Amino acid sequence: MIVSDSGDGLTRTLDGDAGEAVWRCLGRRGMLFSECESFDFVRLAPGAVLDGRGRSDIEEAWFVLRGEAEFVEDGQDPLLAREGELVFCAHASAGHWRNVGDSPLEMLFLALMPASVSLRLPTRTPSD
């Protein structure tokens, strides 16, 4: 089990003001009995950016709970994601999220192993 406590119960992950971004792990690999790497909650202050470097080895699903976000990938037009929308990022995608709204942006983040990896793994099932 992973436990973190930074006063409000959320793990701070970006440099700068304490209010720019928070990240909280809701579950990790072995806890989920799947090819899921992690399931996380992310909050960004207005104008804050979440850099995605170093995450190219996974596939991602981002669900916008509150606010408006822009996903920017080199050489691509920015993708606007609003409350209630789901964005999938394929294996080897690179880019960053930016809060483009006037209020905090809240998202759920699901990180998955790419099919090229998970298809090679033995079947995993919970035990009794």
From TrEMBL:
Listed SUPFAM superfamilies: RmlC-like cupins
InterPro entries, per database record: Cupin_2 (IPR013096), RmlC-like_jellyroll (IPR014710), RmlC_Cupin_sf (IPR011051)
One Pfam short name: Cupin_2
Limits of the Cupin type-2 domain: 41-109
Protein name as catalogued: Cupin type-2 domain-containing protein
Species for this entry: Amycolatopsis japonica
Classification of source organism: Bacteria, Bacillati, Actinomycetota, Actinomycetes, Pseudonocardiales
